[in-house]
Amino acid sequence: MLNGRTFYQILGVQPDAEDVVIKAAYRALSQRYHPDKWAGDPKVGSDRMIELNRAYAVLSDAVQRQRYDDELSSSGQESVLSEDINVEEILREVLSEQDLAWEVATDYLPRLGVYLASLKKINSGLAFTYKAILVNTRQYDQAEGLYKRLRSAFLRRYFGTDETVLRNVEGYLAAGRKDILLEINKAVRVLGTSVSGDQIIKKIRSKFSNDYHGLTPDIQDAVREVKATSDFNACIKLLEWLDYVVEETSSGIFSKKYSVYKKQVVVKQNLSTDQLTSWVRYILIPNEITY
Q1: What's the mean pLDDT in 57-86?
Q2: Per-domain residue ranges for the chain?
Q3: Residue 138, by phi and psi: left (phi above 0), alpha (psi -120 to 50) or beta?
Q4: Of 43, 56, 60, 90, which is the most exposed, with the fewest CB atoms less than 10 Å away?
């Protein structure tokens, strides 16, 4: 640990980051903070370079890295969720070659941008890792699988495997509530499996009850409107805020039909207007969103 951060956090990468990702992050960050390029406080740049060099010296050496990983695991630091360092913003200016390759790739494969945006909502370093792996390996045909693996590994590392916890984590990620996510991470790390996911989430909701259980104002307003009016357009708006996609699948003489997707997975199919409204009001709101 240096200044309360792990070597992985200093480089802005995950504990399971591949060598190519660690190298790319170090190269970019060291370029930014190098004395010849750093325009800020010289002491800040110097201190940052010392941290970067120390972190890279350990993580770039297989033997030292394994020893360090063992220490992190035994101390429980590996699963500590920290404040997200916006690595993507820091690195953008010094990764011109990577960004150029990414631009070409997304031009032909626009779905890459969707995956990257989804990972960026979770953690900017995770998004950088995704981009760096694909640009360096050029295995773009594996993009969806890589996205799913990185996402799943991140959520399970910091929030465990309880489905109730993970479902609520998804909601708080969509709402951008890092304060609540840090609290959930702390509870999961300290309590392990001795307390159920339902108990953890019940306590979290109680602790944050004064701010409508962590929803953003836009989602709060959408929830209130649906509950007050059962308006179809309000339901659609709420679903969009929660990252659902609604498609009109048929338009018959008497009624339209809709299908609902999330992360390209079908959630509901061929619902009438009334059925979709009822599902949102009586199933989705009580059971699937954190309010």
Answers
A1: 82
A2: 7-156, 160-214, 217-288
A3: left
A4: 43
Contacts 24+ apart (CB under 8 A), 217-221: 219/174, 219/175, 219/289, 219/291, 220/291
Residue type present at position 157? R
Instruction: Please give the structure tokens belonging to residue 231.
Output: 């308006």
Query: Burial of 127 by CB count in 10 Å (0-12 exposed, 13-18 middle, 19+ buried)?
Result: buried
Averaged over 18-24, what is the pLDDT? Answer: 87
Contacts 24+ apart (CB under 8 A), 166-174: 167/288, 168/201, 168/204, 168/290, 171/214, 171/242, 171/288, 171/289, 171/290, 172/214, 172/290, 173/121, 173/122, 174/121, 174/219, 174/241, 174/242, 174/243
pLDDT for the residue numbered 123: 82
Would you state the structure tokens that stand for residue 181, as one six-digit string? 């996510």
Instruction: Name residue, tokens 């792990």.
Output: 6
Q: Within its chain, how far is the Cα of 196 from the centroid?
A: 23
- Does 1.10.287.110 match the CATH number of domain 7-156? yes
Strands 256-262 and 265-271: what pairing? antiparallel
Supply the pLDDT for residue 228: 84
